[in-house]
């Protein structure tokens, strides 16, 4: 394929035809377009944007770049949740087993860490023995048997997104509304779901910096999803501070298990419970949100989703004994360092962008497409907005591979926090629902 004229056309702001989009996706998925040409093309798309028609064709071509899931008839609705990504965003890990316990089938296809935001697959793979590479037949059988599976794009499922996602990550082309829409919906449409709850984040550590941009992305996803027959509810949520008290792959798995055992933290639990509640309403299982929230909370408190989490990871090859041994450890990284305050007052800022960058630089995220993830590193025991602090109180702990990396991370992390003399109420996490 001679790709150069299409790069030039997009650079100059032309809309490509459906046939051209299908050919681009097909050729790239088959290795007939080089990464350097695709990188230039993605940058042209980033600056020029796509028409609705182009976004739709790209999404469907990406969906069709591999196999799609076909489930047998079953009274349990097929649903999923997806987030545009944030720091400490481990919601899927607790939500997926909760949804299975609420009577849904959840064929969750997730992504890897992108930019400074973590990825569900990287987190899951910090569980000893667990695989996220599930062939479609295995994924379907697992969902039918236990209600939930959490896998990634494979060579056979949405392979075009797998390749594009990795390239966008290292070429500064992530925060593009049409590219995010196509990336997310290609995976969700390939799952064959009927309802989707989206978490579109805005703020310091989100791809979408402002609430207006997040709303534009939410509308882009919701309208294309509706055209494709998927009912969608979008939560627009703040991503200025990390979710929960930990960021880093294994540390977030640990915190998710704690959430499933009823220990919150509140912001994390709120997102889990509200996402489940919206799906209950969207699928008609509950008539209104307050009742749906109550049912979701009750289910979480019953302990069934914690048991379901074990069932899920065992089905995906995890070694349960090794997992529980690892859970019992305080840390798995070689070095842990406490970061304490030299001021007093109330926490008025906990900058998720700085924290995400620190975790990435400790080895918890990717600098290049080939980067190896170190799942033990990260931060935990993070102070939350509004909490009162005296001099010498713990702001967070750093988990690192070496002492010098821990010390340089600690110095940067101190700069992530600010204090005020007066107590203040943090802004609501869920800013609006579309
Ligand atoms: N999540 C995805 O799956 N794709 C994106 O492009 C961004 C977030």
Structure description:
It is a single chain. The protein has 434 residues and is α/β, with parallel strands linked by helices. The chain folds into three domains: 4-49, Transferase, Pyrimidine Nucleoside Phosphorylase, Chain A, domain 3 (Up-down Bundle), CATH 1.20.970; 79-324, 3-Layer(aba) Sandwich (Pyrimidine Nucleoside Phosphorylase, Chain A, domain 2); 331-420, Aldehyde Oxidoreductase, domain 3 (Alpha-Beta Complex), CATH 3.90.1170.30. Helices cover 47% and strands 15% of the residues. It has 17 helices and twelve strands. The chain has helices spanning 4-11, 18-29, 35-48, 52-63, 91-101, 120-124, 136-146, 159-169, 177-191, 211-227, 249-260, 266-282, 289-301, 304-315, 320-328, 352-364, 403-414; strands spanning 79-83, 106-110, 148-152, 195-202, 231-238, 335-340, 345-350, 378-380, 388-389, 394-400, 417-420, 430-433. The strands form four sheets. The protein has a four-stranded mixed beta sheet with strand order 1-4-5-12, sandwiched between helices. A three-stranded antiparallel beta sheet has the order 6-10-8. The mean pLDDT is 94.
Which SSEs are present, and which pair or pack?
Blueprint lengths: L3 H8 L6 H12 L5 H14 L3 H12 L15 E5 L7 H11 L4 E5 L9 H5 L11 H11 L1 E5 L6 H11 L7 H15 L3 E8 L8 H17 L3 E8 L10 H12 L5 H17 L6 H13 L2 H12 L4 H9 L6 E6 L4 E6 L1 H13 L13 E3 L7 E2 L4 E7 L2 H12 L2 E4 L9 E4 L1
Helix pairs in contact: 1-3, 2-4, 4-9, 5-11, 5-12, 5-14, 9-10, 12-13, 16-17
The protein binds uracil.
């Amino acid at each position: 394929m001679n790709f150069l004229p299409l790069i030039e056309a997009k650079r100059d702001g032309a809309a490509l035809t459906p046939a051209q989009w299908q050919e681009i996706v097909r050729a790239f998925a088959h290795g007939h377009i080089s990464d350097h040409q695709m990188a230039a093309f993605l940058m042209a798309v980033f600056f020029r944007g796509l028409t609705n028609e182009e976004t739709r064709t790209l999404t469907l071509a990406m969906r069709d770049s591999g196999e799609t899931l076909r489930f047998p008839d079953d009274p349990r609705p097929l649903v999923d949740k997806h987030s545009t990504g944030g720091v400490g965003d481990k919601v899927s890990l607790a939500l997926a087993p909760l949804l299975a316990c609420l009577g849904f089938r959840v064929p969750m296809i997730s992504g890897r860490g992108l930019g400074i935001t973590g990825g569900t697959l990287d987190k899951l793979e910090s569980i000893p023995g667990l695989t996220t590479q599930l062939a479609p037949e295995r994924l379907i059988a697992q969902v039918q048997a236990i209600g939930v599976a959490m896998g990634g794009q494979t060579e056979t499922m949405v392979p075009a997104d797998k390749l594009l996602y990795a390239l966008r990550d290292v070429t500064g082309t992530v925060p593009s509304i049409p590219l995010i829409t196509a990336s997310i919906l290609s995976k969700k449409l390939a799952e064959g779901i009927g309802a989707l709850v989206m978490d579109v984040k805005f703020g310091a550590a989100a791809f979408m910096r402002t609430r207006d941009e997040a709303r534009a992305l939410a509308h882009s996803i919701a309208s294309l999803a509706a055209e494709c027959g998927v009912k969608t509810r979008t939560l627009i949520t703040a991503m200025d501070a990390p979710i929960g008290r930990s960021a880093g792959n294994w540390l977030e798995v640990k915190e998710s298990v704690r959430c499933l055992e009823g220990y919150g933290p509140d912001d994390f639990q709120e997102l889990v419970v509200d996402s489940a509640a919206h799906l209950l309403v969207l699928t008609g299982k509950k008539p209104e949100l307050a009742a749906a929230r109550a049912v979701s909370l009750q289910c979480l408190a019953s302990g069934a989703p914690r048991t379901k989490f074990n069932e899920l990871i065992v089905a995906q090859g995890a070694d349960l004994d090794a997992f529980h041994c690892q859970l019992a450890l305080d840390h798995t990284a070689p070095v842990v360092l406490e970061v304490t305050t030299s001021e007093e007052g109330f926490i008025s800022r906990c900058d998720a962008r700085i924290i995400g960058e620190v975790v990435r630089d400790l080895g918890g995220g990717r600098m290049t497409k080939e980067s190896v993830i170190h799942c033990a590193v990260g931060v935990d025991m993070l102070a939350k907005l509004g909490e009162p602090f005296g001099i010498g109180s713990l702001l967070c702990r750093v988990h690192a591979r070496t002492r010098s990396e821990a010390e340089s991370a600690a110095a940067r992390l101190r700069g992530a926090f600010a204090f005020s003399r007066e107590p203040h109420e943090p802004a609501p996490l869920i800013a609006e629902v579309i």
